[in-house]
Amino acid sequence: MNPEPSPSSNNSGAQPPAELPRRYAGVLENYRPLLDIPAYTQTITLLEGNTPLIPLPRLGRELGGCELYVKFEGLNPTGSFKDRGMTVAIGEAAGAGARAVICASTGNTAASAAAYAARAGLRSIVLIPQGKVAAGKLAGAMAYGAQIVQVLGSFDDALNLVVEITRKHPIALVNSLNPYRLEGQKTAAFELCDVLGSAPDLLCLPVGNAGNISAYWMGFTQYHRLKQTGLPQILGVQAAGSAPLVLGHPVDHPETIATAIRIGRPARGEQALLAAEQSGGQIIAVSDDEILDMQRRLAGEGVWVEPASTAGLAGLAAQLRRGERSVSGKRVVAVCTGHGLKDPEIVAQRAAPLVAIPVEMGALEAVILPK
After folding, report:
1. Beta-bridge partner residues of 55
2. Neighbours of 104 (CB within 10 A)
3. How far apart are CA 262 and CA 155, in angstroms?
4. In degrees to the nearest 10, what's the CA dihedral of 254, 75, 89, 285?
5. Of 148, 180, 212, which marks where a domain is finished?
6. Where does the chain have alpha helices with state H?
7. Torsions phi, psi for 150 (to 5 deg)
8. Quick check: helix, strand or coil at residue 129?
9. Residue 113 and residue 138: Cα distance in Å, rounded?
């Protein structure tokens, strides 16, 4: 439940300096005319957006000879794509006079909500499923000062509680059920079209709560109407142990190493399925091993992302292995939603033991030189 708009709009300290170039102004200032948001929405920004579109020619050759790019959303201020939507959701809540915001989260939403609430001077409350959040994400929410409550249940249980309490009390809901979240997240599609000059042929991305895939399709269709930038096919990918949209029914106990998409009842599930269908694409599932293999391959190109971020490319690789798709000569963009530092334990657990040597040249040569 959102309170009524406040007549005042005290936003001291939240606006970017006027002398900054437009591209550094954050998604609200760069794309406000294209966003369906209330006039009272404040600009609460950490200069999110404008994330790099990194060409990966070597991996593109390996993956069917495509022109491959990674949209690295892990370089947003709190390390994930959530910042695009949160700047708008928190800006709307602040403009409406809210004093507190709340969300359920598997980690990235928690950190983003806490950061933008802190920026706006609002109280933030985060509900997380106990033992199911990566330490790097939980630490972010703590650092930004959120009140963190563990729920003895799943993310979906936490989300149900959050929805219920916002119906009873004047606390603003900032999960992706909030429509302003998607308004902010669709700016990533705008950026892709602006940089490439058109939409890619194929967009691959992970699917958890299904807000991001829905937002991208909103953005592409809007830009297509305005500027005739074309429309991509969308490949959404879930983890096999947490794939309700692939299975066709909720998953009561979702399990995957990709914690960001460990969600059994996606809030935007129907919208995501419609986006995939309208684009001529689909939503598929891949195993945890396939996800981790793609994390390793991306890191081999210098791009370290959290496991869930690799699901889109892992799905494309799986389809290519099975002969289900050809991307030769096509322009493909993979959305990597979160930085590797969000979940470093995965790498540490699977790394070889460190080698210790005495302070001797011979010992160093024995270790690093070819046998």
Report:
1. 69
2. 29
3. 8
4. -30
5. 180
6. 27-31, 57-62, 82-95, 108-120, 135-143, 155-168, 179-185, 187-196, 211-227, 244-247, 269-278, 288-299, 311-321, 345-350, 361-368
7. -85, 135
8. strand
9. 12
How far CA 236 is from CA of 1, 2, 202, 304, 311, in Å, comes to 31, 31, 11, 20, 8
**pLDDT (0 to 100) of residue 349:** 83
Q: State the Cα–Cα distance between residues 331 and 60, nearest whole angstrom.
A: 9
Question: Which residues are registered as beta bridge partners of 104?
Answer: 127
What is each CA distance from 154 to 87, 113, 255, in whole angstroms? 26, 19, 10
Query: Helices H, strands E: what count in the chain?
Result: 15, 10
- The residue type at 241: G
- Let me know: does 14 contact 44? Beta carbons within 8 Å: yes
- Distance, C-alpha 100 to centroid of its chain: 23
User: What are the mean pLDDT values of the chain's consecutive 10-residue runs (371 residues total)?
Assistant: 41 46 78 97 97 97 97 97 98 98 92 97 94 79 94 91 96 95 98 96 96 97 94 98 97 92 93 97 98 97 96 98 97 97 85 91 94 82
Q: What is the CATH number of the domain that holds 148?
A: 3.40.50.1100
Can you give the pLDDT at residue 68? 98
Quickly count: other Cβ atoms within 10 Å of residue 107's Cβ: 31
Angle between helices 288-299 and 311-321 (to 10 degrees): 110
Mark whether 199 and 174 lie in a shared domain: no
CA–CA separation, 246 and 243 (whole Å): 5
Exposure letters 80-90 (e unless 16+ CB within 10 A, then b) = bbbbbbbbbbb
Same domain, 158 and 191: no
Describe the chain by its helix, strand, coil percentages, rounded to 5.
45, 15, 40
Neighbours of 169 (CB within 10 A): 10
Determine the structural domain holding residue 288 and report its residue range.
Answer: 53-79+182-349
* 71-76-80 Cα angle (round to 5): 80
What's the rounded Cα separation, in Å, for the pair 337 and 83? Answer: 11
Same domain, 165 and 204: no
Provide the Cα torsion 28, 281, 80, 23; round to 10°. -40
| pLDDT (tens digit per residue) in 51-95 | 999 999 999 999 999 999 999 999 999 999 999 999 999 999 999
